User: Fold this.
Amino acid sequence: MKPSISTQTTPANIQAVLALLEVTPHEFERFGLMIPEHTSPLGEGQRSLVQDLAHVINSEEINAQAIYLALLLDEPLLHDVHPERDWGHLLRRDTFPFAELLAYFKLRRVVLMRVLRSLNEAQWHRTIREEGKQRRESGYWRARVIALHEADHIADLERRIKLS
Assistant:
């Protein structure tokens, strides 16, 4: 079931976001044990487990960077760097072994969770500006984006595993 979390920055919604973020690395670890071949597509025209994890990491890095910058600077300007076409193409994480990617993802998540768990209410509301966009996005907004994006991938992987 796809989770839904409101865009309202409430303590309950923050806790829901944190709970989703906490579980994602464990889910990828579980998938790594269930899927013996990490580099084979999980179906016709689909990503492999390594490609899926690389995609999740690329997206997480762009959004986590926005959170960190919002905490450090007054409304920093983020440039339009696409997590997959730009960031992913440069770093080519899809060529790394699954175990190394998973270890990297777990460490990134520990760092992100330490930062997010330390935030007070005002810090959750700190914003960034994004090139070409009028609206400001808060740290909460970006953390929510990470959590829901990852939850979508977990649900999709669950579905694909059941079909195979």
